[in-house]
Design goal:
Strand order of the largest sheet: 4-5-6-10-9-8-7
Shape: globular
Strand content: 25-35%
Structural class: alpha+beta
Largest sheet: 7 strands, mixed
Bound molecules: biotin
Number of helices: 10
Radius of gyration: 22 Å
Helix content: 25-40%
Distance between the termini: 58 Å
Length: 323
C-alpha cells in the first residue's frame, strides 16, 4: 500500500480511527500504522490521538494525474502523455527517458511530487521538497532548425507568468532570460535543455519549470525567494489546477512560437522586465548601463554612454549594479 493513500484519507484534517482507515483501504491496522509512520518520515505532521486515531496537521495538496487531465481541453488531453510521479531524480531527465517510449508527435509531460536530483541553470541543484511545489517538464519539438530558436527560452517565462496571473497571482515579473519573480524575489525558474535535431530541421527541446507554491521555509536556498502562498496568503492554491494551467499555457505558447516566431512575445516579455530602467552590470563589469529590455532575438539591451550593447541570451548573467 502506498503512503499516499493514507495521506489522501487524512487530508481533510479530521480525526480518523485506525479501524476506519484499515476498512477503507482493506488492509490491517498495523499496515495503516506503518503507512502513517512512513508519511511522518516523509515530513507530514500527523497527530496520533490515543484511543481515537490519527489527524493530519500538515496542509495536504496531493497531485493527481486525473485531476490535471480533467482540467485540460480535450484536444490538448489527446496531445500529451502525462506522467505524475511520487518521486523522481529530475522531471527533465524523466521526459528524456519517456521520449524513447511514446508515439511520435505526442508531447511527454512529467510532474513529480519531489525530485531527488532537481537541476537548476548553470549546473546548480534545484531544491525540490516533497508536497510543496510544482516540478514539471515538457518534451517539445520545433521545426526550422536551431536558427529558429532565437528567443525561445524567454517564451516560456511569458507563458508561465500569464498562466499564473489567470490563476490569481499578481505582478509576476521576469528576470532575463526567464526567471519568475514576485515582490523582488524568485518565485520559480525554467531550465531549457536543447536535445538536438530529431530529423532534418526538427529540433527537440526539454523545458523544466520549478514553481514555489506552498513553500514557506527553505533554509539552504542562498538567494531571496518567495512562493505563491507567501505572496497571497489565504488563497487556496491547488497544484493540480496550477499544473494544468501551466500545461495549457506552455503548449499553447510553443504552438504560437512555431507558427509566428518570437515577435508576438516580445512586448509581453518587456511588460514584465524587472531590469527595465535599472543600472545593470554584466560580463564582470565590462558592460554597465541602463536596462532597456530585449531585441528581436531575445538578447538583453544595455544602454551606456558608448551606445546600446546586446547581451546574448544564455551567455552571462545580469545583475543590478551596486549603487
Ligand atoms: C533555475 O535554475 O532557475 C531553473 C530551475 C528549473 C527547475 C526545474 S524543476 C522541474 C525541472 N526538473 C529539473 O531537474 N529542473 C527543472
Amino acid at each position: 500500500m502506498k503512503a499516499n493513500l493514507v495521506i489522501g484519507l487524512l487530508a481533510d484534517g479530521q480525526v480518523h480511527s485506525g479501524e476506519s482507515l484499515a476498512n477503507q483501504l482493506a488492509v490491517s491496522r498495523t499496515a495503516v500504522w506503518k503507512q502513517v509512520r512512513k508519511a511522518m518520515e516523509q515530513g507530514y505532521r500527523i497527530e496520533t490521538i490515543r484511543g481515537k486515531g490519527y489527524r493530519m496537521l500538515t496542509r495536504v495538496d496531493l497531485l493527481s494525474r486525473n485531476a490535471v487531465l480533467e482540467r485540460l481541453d480535450s484536444n490538448l488531453r489527446q496531445r500529451v502523455d502525462l506522467s505524475v510521479l511520487d518521486e523522481v531524480d529530475s522531471t527533465n531527465a524523466e521526459v528524456i527517458r519517456r521520449q524513447a517510449e511514446i508515439s511520435p508527435g505526442t508531447i511527454p509531460v512529467c510532474i513529480a511530487d519531489c525530485q531527488t536530483a532537481g537541476r537548476g541553470r548553470r549546473g546548480r541543484p534545484w531544491r525540490s521538497p516533497r508536497g510543496e511545489n510544482i516540478y514539471i517538464s515538457f518534451g517539445l519539438t520545433f521545426p526550422g532548425g536551431f536558427a529558429m530558436l532565437d528567443g525561445l527560452s524567454l517564451v516560456f517565462g511569458v507563458a508561465i507568468a500569464e498562466a499564473l496571473e489567470v490563476a490569481g497571482a499578481q505582478d509576476i515579473g521576469l528576470k532575463w532570460p526567464n526567471d519568475l519573480y514576485c515582490s523582488g524575489r524568485k518565485l520559480g525558474g525554467i531550465l531549457v535543455e536543447l536535445q538536438g535535431e530529431l530529423e532534418e530541421g526538427v529540433v527537440r527541446v526539454i523545458v523544466g519549470v520549478g514553481l514555489n507554491v506552498h513553500m514557506t521555509a527553505a533554509p539552504d536556498v542562498d538567494q531571496p525567494w518567495t512562493s505563491l502562498a507567501r505572496e497571497l496568503d489565504g488563497q487556496d492554491w491547488q497544484r493540480n489546477a496550477l499544473a494544468s494551467a501551466l500545461v495549457t499555457s506552455v503548449v499553447g505558447a510553443a504552438d504560437e512560437f512555431s507558427a509566428s516566431g518570437f515577435s508576438p512575445f516580445r512586448e509581453r516579455w518587456q511588460g514584465r522586465d524587472i531590469f527595465s530602467g535599472r543600472q545593470l552590470a554584466a560580463k564582470q563589469g565590462e558592460v554597465a548601463g541602463t536596462g532597456r529590455g530585449i531585441d528581436d532575438q531575445g538578447n538583453y539591451l544595455i544602454e551606456s554612454t558608448d551606445g546600446v550593447e546586446a547581451v546574448r541570451a544564455g551567455e552571462i548573467s545580469l545583475r543590478v549594479a551596486a549603487p
